[in-house]
Amino acid sequence: AAAGGAGAAAALWSEVNRCGQNGDFARALKSVNKILQISKDDVTALQCKVVCLIQNGNFKEALGVINTHTKVLTSDTIAFEKAYCEYRLNRIENALKTIQSASQQTDKLKELYGQVLYRLERYDECLAAYRDLIRNSQDEYEEERKTNLSAVVAAQSTWEKVMPEDLGLREATYELCYNSACALIGQGKLNEGMKKLQKAEELCRQSLSEDSDVTEEDIEAELAIIHGQMAYIMQLQGRTEDALQLYNQIIKLKPTDVGLLAVIANNIITINKDQNVFDSKKKVKLTNAEGVEHKLSKKQLQAIEFNKALLAMYTNQADQCRKLSASLQSQSPEHLLPVLIQAAQLCREKQHAKAIGLLQDFADQHPASAAEIKLTMAQLKIAQGSVTKACMILRSIEELQHKPGMVSALVTMYSHEEDIDSAIEVFTQAIQWYQKFQARTNDGCCVFQPKSPVHLSLIREAANFKLKHGRKKEAISDLEELWKQNPKDVHTLAQLISAYSLVDAEKAKVLSKHLPSSDTLSLKVDVDALENSHGATYVRKKAGKLTGDNQQKEQGQGEVKKKKKKKKGKLPKNYDPKVSPDPERWLPMRERSYYRGRKKGKKKDQVGKGTQGSTTAGSSELDASRTASSPPTSPRPGSAAAVSVTSNVIPPRHQKPAGAPATKKKQQQKKKKGTKGGW
């Protein structure tokens, strides 16, 4: 029976060996389990089972086998497999302890050690580990080790802002070229980084197109990470439309890398800002995919959380915004952004005093970040209209008091509040700061250096400000200081003389002797060019050839004036040149000889007879105005075509428009106009 069992075990081992060579680890696992039924504590069989489970991706089950048989599978025999399972299960700290506890550091453990250090973002130790591996190893994996080494250098450049050293790696593969581009982006060399990425894309296409089994879709999927980095460069360069288009193209490919999708979605959210919020809310779901936290660095994850909090604020989800920002603050108590987001949310809720109190508490607890916090507090005070309080906050930032930008801002704000004394005090404090640090000690002696350009500029600005606001004596003191520094400065001397002329005329005369004489001044000015320049108020007309008429005008010197062209009068639309005009046309209608007044009761007699505006058939016979003895009257509207041309007919100029009888008001307006125009 023992012999039969031994024969069966031998046959099973042969099956395990054959399946292992063929890569059929599922079938090999079945054979190993049969062996373990015969001998449950067989070390080799247990090791083979762990390997088969790892090859099949069952890392949790493999780790369970290792932990169950700790007495048989010691740390020396199974250290690599255990550490690898922990690494793949994202138990990085446990994997590091397993590697460090191994009595013998094999090449496999060293390779895994480098990967673990990279995931823990301990880049300096990781770099040393890969250098040691490359130096002491010679096999077919040398190219992969160099790629990993270049990835460590790129991470240092991007996240730790370390200037990468030249490793002398030949960029023969697209992975090496891509990592080199990332290192350049970390240094801010965006154009060079884009060129490297274009080279990486070309190398990738060449490499993958050699394999006949690789489709165009596979190539595009592999290029997705390169295109994503290209879009990131475009975004940094301000080409947001191009970046957005490329980001959306990558998302349409549906890459399997959840880390890449999360980064692209986050970058799209930053482009949208407070616009296109609906799209941002859809993209945020990609950042919540399972496994994202294991694919990205801590800084990337932190940036995504910050943007989630800001998006919650923009979408008026106040509770969600507070929850996210509070969580971020607990994770990074010294970080500025969480407290700034909380303050911004409070301001949106019109709680400005509470926001300023929150910022003040943070500034007291974290003095290193006090300057940036106080700048934000000052901005909030200005938004509330408390300019003086904002100035007090700004002046409390000691490390910025002497900066020209701060001085300019304070002086402008104090001038707006008409507090000239405080503005001058700001100038004085800044100038004194430069004077205090102007001297340096050398062997116990105080050596004074020439004033810096910033110092001199502040003195000049202070003098100009004082002159503008009538502080002449104080301005004179500053100008004298400037002139002592540079006695050849004619501009400063001229300002000083101008200031003294308002206070001490004698002193101004004495100083004017230091001005250079007009003979010494060589002003090479082209008068013609100056007069014909674009900004000249007077431009001389170019002389041209004069004709005979023009010569007379030149000689006349203004005697001949240009006559205004008389505008031709307008004639009525129904003007008939054969009809002579009415000699009484300039007189008001009431003053004309043929005016008989308004006929009363005419409309009353015609009520109910015919359609509106029509007349009876016998009305013309009863009209006294048409008798032979009557003087001529104006033709009725609409009857001009039937009127014969005689001297007694009134011309069409005086016909009234149909349906608009002349009222008394209109006649009075015509009187006011008086006589105008004519034929």
Automatic annotation (TrEMBL):
Q: Which GO terms describe its cellular component?
A: endoplasmic reticulum; signal recognition particle, endoplasmic reticulum targeting
Q: Which UniProt keywords apply?
A: Coiled coil, Cytoplasm, Endoplasmic reticulum, Repeat, Ribonucleoprotein, Signal recognition particle, TPR repeat
Checking Gene3D superfamilies in the record gives: Tetratricopeptide repeat domain
Q: Where is the composition biased (Low complexity)?
A: 625-642
Where does it live in the cell?
Cytoplasm; Endoplasmic reticulum
Stretches with biased composition (Basic and acidic residues): 573-594
The protein's predominant localisation is cytoplasm
Coiled coil segments of this chain: 92-147
UniProt GO MF annotations: 7S RNA binding; ribosome binding
Q: Which PROSITE patterns match?
A: TPR
Q: Where is the composition biased (Basic residues)?
A: 561-571, 663-679
Q: Which BP terms does GO give this entry?
A: SRP-dependent cotranslational protein targeting to membrane
Q: Where are the TPR repeats?
A: 224-257
Domain Signal recognition particle SRP72 subunit RNA-binding: start-end pairs? 541-597
Give the matching Pfam families.
SRP72, SRP_TPR_like
Tell me its family.
Belongs to the SRP72 family.
Put simply, this protein is called Signal recognition particle subunit SRP72
**Organism of origin:** Upupa epops
Q: Which gene encodes it?
A: Srp72
